[in-house]
What we know:
Layout: H1 2-15, H2 18-25, H3 40-47, H4 49-73, H5 78-93, H6 106-117, H7 120-136, H8 139-157, H9 161-177
Amino acid sequence: MTELWILLTAFLLGALPLSVWVTQLAGKDPRAVGDKNPGATNALKAGGKWVGLAALLMDVSKSAAPVGLAYQILGLDGPWLAAIALAPSLGHAYSPFLRFKGGKALATVLGAWIGLTLWDVPLVALAGITLWFVLLKKSGWAVVLTLFGMAAYLYFFRPEALFFWVLGLQSVLLVWKHRFDLAIGKS
């Protein structure tokens, strides 16, 4: 029963449109800029660096907290933990508070990995996304290449089946949310 409550809490925390709310406090709406998604990147574009940073930290935290509670403190494992690790990202991507629209879930995926591994996989992910975005300027392909880098890191340094399940589920969601960025021939 504990697993179900944590799963529901993780989804609902992920669904909270914190990037929208913090940007609205600054008198802006992140859904009015960029790709119109209610995420931290558009909060940065709409409200500036401090609003963007606040939105990013809140989006990461709303995922790191329930995943860290489930894995680091309660010691959950297996399919329940994989579902809990995905739940905040699903909530963020398909928020019932925003009529099942949402962001691309990058910050919440990062938060889940903080909850799971504390620092090493999140650092690999941040280094990868930064490198690939600078080199390619295409967010979708930067995400895909970062996911491959994370998988390689996990294979060599953290070869736990659970982590591969989590990464696989997150990869499906991230590729789906970035599908238009991945279209060949689009700028």
